[in-house]
Amino acid sequence: MKKIVTLIVSIVIGVGGLLVYELLMHNDENGELTLYGNVDIRDVVLSFRVSGRIAAVHFEEGDRVEKGDVVAVLDQDTFLEDLAMVKAELTEEKALLVKAERTYTRRAKLVKTGAVSESLYEDALAERDRAQARVKTAKARMDRNETALEDTEIKAPSTGIILTRVREPGSVIQAGQPVYTLAVDDPVWVRTYVAEPDLGRIYSGQQATVSTDTGGIYEGQIGFISPQTEFTPKNVETTQLRTDLVYRLRVIVDNPDQGLRQGMPVSVTIDTTPTSARGEDGT
Q1: Residue 185 carries which DSSP code?
Q2: Are 52 and 173 in contact (CB under 8 A)?
Q3: Of 37, 51, 55, 266, which has the maximum CB count within 10 A?
């Protein structure tokens, strides 16, 4: 008798546990999805497009810069001299072009009356064309030198924080060598991963809440979902096994502030409740 009672109790407990498990899973599928990831802030290496000697660097590590701020400048003396020289060359070539055009116009009229030979007319035409080409070449050189002069300044491509300052005034550098590293703080992304069974519960543009261990809460939206599966990275917090396949996704944080730092672990909560199951106010 006791064995029968024990068996019945075990069956009831097992069935009850199964029902509770299924109920919890059902609520989870129609409620919130919590993912874990890390803040992903882009870094930009700032460098000059031309070679030269650094005249000034205006910011220190940790300083905040706005888009368009001049952060470093090269010595411009050589660039100004080169620009003045090509401007003078352009002025000279323009003067020669005016003379060549006048000669061509005069001979074009005289050749019709026979006062000028066909050969002299063709010489004037060729000289005019060469003068026009020389003016275009001089203009191109001037434009290139003006661009080089502009490139003696590094301007912040976007708002951000100076992470590293690599060079000091007086350093002679080649084009492309790093001077600063800038952390772009807008947009700020969160890189996280979703298991394959939950993939159908999310979509691009879906609202998400990002929370930090320090109590910061930020609103955002899913901006990218990878079309390819991959194995769960070792540094991703997940209750699934390492061998489970996941999809990488990016959450774009709205109105980020200084509370979000590169690599910071965060939690991402996504409301996956079907719209029809929510109240009239969407909650």
Answers
A1: E
A2: yes
A3: 37
Per-residue pLDDT at 150: 96
* Amino acid, single-letter form, for residue 106: R
Query: Among 257, 258, 260, which Cα is nearest to 268's?
Result: 260
Q: What is the dihedral of CA 216, 221, 227, 230, to 10 degrees?
A: 10
Q: Could you give the angle at the alpha carbon of 76 between the alpha carbons of 73 and 82, nearest 5°?
A: 145
CA distance 92 to 182: 44
> In which band, very low, low, confident or very high, does the pLDDT at 15 lie, cut at 50, 70 and 90?
very low
**Pairwise CA distance, residues 198 & 32, whole Å:** 11
Region for residue 62 given its phi and psi (left: phi exceeds 0; alpha: psi -120 to 50; beta: otherwise)? left
Q: Which two tokens stand for residue 282?
A: 């969407």
Tell me phi and psi for residue 40, to 5 degrees: -125, 105
- Tell me if 262 sits within 8 A of 234, measured CB to CB: no
Q: What is the tens place of the pLDDT at every residue in 24-65?
A: 333 354 578 989 988 888 889 999 999 999 999 999 999 999
